[in-house]
Write a structure and sequence with these properties.
By secondary structure, the chain is mainly alpha-helical. 93% of the residues lie in helices and 0% in strands. The protein has two helices and no strands. Helix 1 packs antiparallel against helix 2.
Length: 129
């Protein structure tokens, strides 16, 4: 957007300057040589007006390139953020799974201890009897 505004402003400025120079040349021509429209001011004004659009496009290119580069950098940052979020979510899921496995193992070990105690109690009760 900025490059379009800058390019249009440059083109408009050059066109106005060329028109002014052409007008000056035209007024000199009409007062000096009515049939000859080929004086240097008129030619210079026409040349400036004709070159205004190509020159403004050349001036726009670095600005447009900078904008595209900035948009690319913004997308890279957004992608990095998405990757970081996805990585964090994956890491959290893995931690949750690890915690679940640990809790199951603790439950299994507690049951094993409980059953071992019951077995020892049963065996000692049988020995006494």
């Amino acid at each position: 957007m900025t490059s379009a505004i800058a390019g249009s402003s440059l083109s408009l400025g050059m066109t106005i300057a060329g028109a002014g120079i052409s007008y000056k040349g035209l007024s000199q021509t009409t007062t000096n040589n009515v049939g000859n429209l080929q004086n240097s001011s008129l030619l210079a004004g026409n040349a400036i007006s004709s070159l205004s659009n190509p020159i403004s496009q050349i001036a726009q290119q670095p600005l447009a390139s900078g904008q595209v580069k900035e948009q690319g950098n913004q997308r890279i940052l957004e992608t990095e953020q998405q990757i970081n979020n996805a990585t964090g979510e994956t890491h959290q899921r893995e931690e949750n799974i690890n915690d679940e496995v640990k809790n199951k193992l603790i439950q299994i070990l507690n049951k094993m201890i409980e059953y071992s105690q019951q077995t020892v109690s049963t065996i000692s009760g049988n020995i006494r009897a």
